[in-house]
Amino acid sequence: xxxxxxxLVLVAFTTTILVLGLSSxxxxxxxxxxxxxxxxxxxxxxxxxxxxxxxxxxxLSYSQNLQQAPSQNSAMYHNVYIHPAAYRxxxxxxxxxxxxxxxxxxxxxxxxxxxxxxxxxxxxFMGLEVSVKDRSRFEGAGWAYxxxxxxMGKLKAxxxxxxxxxxxxxxxSQKAExxxxxxxxxxxxxxxxxx
Amino acid sequence: xxxxxxxLVLVAFTTTILVLGLSSxxxxxxxxxxxxxxxxxxxxxxxxxxxxxxxxxxxLSYSQNLQQAPSQNSAMYHNVYIHPAAYRxxxxxxxxxxxxxxxxxxxxxxxxxxxxxxxxxxxxFMGLEVSVKDRSRFEGAGWAYxxxxxxMGKLKAxxxxxxxxxxxxxxxSQKAExxxxxxxxxxxxxxxxxx
Lengths: 195, 195
Prior knowledge:
2 copies of one chain form a homodimer. Chain A is 27% helix and 32% strand. Chain A is α+β, with helices and mostly antiparallel strands. Chain A is globular and about 65 Å long.
């Protein structure tokens, strides 16, 4: 009888610990943190539409070439998400922790032709870009930028980061307000930051 | 000794059950379902910025008065969220369950005056509207619409729904594609619906 009880206690406590482990942090609901193959190949994050949305923009871009840019960009919405674990850490400390992952979805903009309807909405899914902060993998500031877009609305399963010489790296470094993140354009992060 | 073991077993199992209860469903991370005072007064939902974002639009509105509308609406972004429990049910069945709650945040649109920057982004928080499906509380189709906006960016703690004779009720009933929800403007819901 004593032995049976001992086994029961063990089973119950093990279950408790397992369940506590699973339910702590963001891991319980949202697949967590970046998954790499080798040092720098990022696997496409899954479930990012259930991350925390931080802001949308329409046709927003920094461009050296003002003549060309509007035609390429004016029709694109950008929806930006941050992984929930990084969101909570940022809300607490105002800093983006190692392993922070953000996702930017692109959509074409369209106006529906109906009587009385005006303005624009998000129509077709166009592509996905992701940023990751990991100083153990990436030189310089420790952020890297990944484009998963293979064609219009088609995504790769994995991809290499842009080189550190790419325009996106320089622009995030020079223009973004908080540690390479454009918090100036993300009202949810501005509101969440500790005052 | 036997008694101590029995108590330990009880404690361990109780903990397991409690933790399992807390970690199941959306309740673990996101405060759940609508909270009413009396039959129809809705308390402002908390934590809706961690719900599932479904789409953004800029200046989108149905308006009888095309002359007036653009000046009022062209500068407003609408960010729309759905409660995670309703999102998961919709992804499974294509239907919005009783208790579905959606939140629409409004932001002013602004273009930052910087060299090389074009397009618009979400600047100031302007207001919050919420919809709830609950046939036990609301007549007709069972949906009700709540405006929590008290002034520019200021919110009420609780509010009554618009009357069933209001324009929003009729418009959602006539123009929205899926059970009074404008899924035609929400790419995340269009993608999540069962095929």
